[in-house]
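Progress against Task 2.4 (sequence-to-structure conversion) is shown through the following example record, which the project officer requested during the mid-term review.
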Amino acid sequence: MLMDMQKIVKTAYENNFAVGAFNVANSEFVKAVIEAAEEQQSPAIIQIHPLEIELMGDSFVAYVRDAINRAKVPIALHLDHGGSIYDVMRAIKNGYNSVMIDASHMSFEENIAITQKVVELAHSVGVAVEAELGTIGSNEGSGEGGADVILYTDPDQASEFVERTGIDTLAVAIGTSHGIYPETKDHKIQIELLKKIKEKVQIPMVLHGGSDNKDEEISESSKNGIAKINLASDMKRAFYQALHQQLNDFPSQYESFQVMPSATEAAKSIVKAKMELFGSANKAKLFK
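Structure tokens generated for the chain above:
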């Protein structure tokens, strides 16, 4: 069932767990997330990046909304990394119930100004808003953007940013990056920094770049204010590796019903494991 984002993240925040937010760009990923959520009795967030909606078209959102409404667990529909007012308005018109405006590459005051506009627009129609302060890193192969050098979120700035914008959730930069990390890159989550931000910010926080970090760091972050964890690369890597293997093993197969199931199951396995890790498994009962 489609559920208000604020109810999902607030419940997670108050109960010290996080809800996975999974990027989708085809029906197989939608199926993997919803089936995993139902089997784990977990709330979930399905999100679509502007580049993904450019690939699939606006009608894809109608399909996703219908699939969510048929689900037996609470799921929100979120715009990931909207970069402009246009992205946000397009998402709202398409039926998302949560949007992200990412102006983290701008100055502090410019970030506040555009975020204030988005909050005014979105809140007027009951849509939740996520914004980002600091810069998330980016690894090779990621299409979600990010910075070459991570600019960590400043706790005092975070407090001012939240107060002046009225956002519902804050994406914080505490050491993670989008994509799959090279072995040489330090990507340790700065838990002590997260704790300092939590002391200053009284709203749920979001962790971007949730793939490829140590399980204990992810688990600890969900106990210290992180209520939403974005995940794409781990799930997509499992899907495409399984698909590649299927095509190699059975080169004469070309029907979707022949080649897709194993890849979808591989993705679903990752999603289920992440729901366990984030602490959201068996939490759907909190929303009844």
